[in-house]
Design goal:
This protein is α+β, with helices and mostly antiparallel strands and 173 residues long. Helix content is 55%, strand content 14%. It has helices at 2-5, 11-22, 24-33, 46-51, 55-73, 75-92, 100-110, 151-165; strands at 117-124, 131-138, 141-148. The two termini are 29 Å apart.
Length: 173
């Protein structure tokens, strides 16, 4: 789909577009749009029901639906499902998002500062609703910190903080 929609795009641009389309958040958006959360059953109370509506769980459910369609109907059925539910998202993304961690790694390399190193500094909250705090260090650069609902999100936030502070990116949002 990406090659057909963006035949002149570079490999890097296609890679960024793909990363956006397959990330947990996009899969969770599809799950919400299809109301897949309604089909999840739990024996617990309200807290456990809310736990089933997190981005992580909904993203996993969406991935499981694609696998079930593939196993039941084959690759063409799975392709149709993906095309039906991702094509507009793919076409609506005018510019592919730049991944903060990749951008930071490229910047650090160009500056001769070595690879960024990420370390988990804190995890708080219940397992189904945790907040992660991460610090990224790079030679000759002040550390960056970030928080997120997943460790990956926290690493992205920490990388973005350094990119903004160093003037590589403008403040977002």
């Amino acid at each position: 789909m990406l090659l057909e929609a963006f035949p002149d795009a570079s490999e890097g641009e296609l890679s960024r577009r793909l990363a956006h389309l397959v990330r947990k958040g996009t899969c969770a958006e599809v799950a919400v749009a299809l109301d897949l959360g309604r089909a999840l059953v739990t024996g617990g109370g309200e807290e456990q029901k809310r736990a089933l509506q997190t981005e992580n769980v909904l993203g996993d459910v969406c991935e499981a639906v694609i696998a079930a369609i593939f196993l039941d109907g084959g690759i063409e059925a799975a392709r149709r499902f993906v095309a039906d539910n991702w094509r507009e998202r793919m076409l609506g993304l005018l510019e592919p998002e730049r991944d903060a961690k990749s951008t930071l790694q490229e910047w650090a390399h160009r500056q001769g500062r070595g690879a960024p190193v990420y370390g988990l500094t804190e995890r708080r909250g219940p397992d189904h609703d945790s907040i992660f705090a991460v610090e990224v260090t790079i030679a000759d650069t002040a550390p960056g910190v970030g928080e997120g609902r997943t460790r990956r999100d926290a690493e992205q936030a920490a990388a973005a903080a350094v990119l903004v502070r160093e003037g590589v990116w403008k403040e977002r949002g």
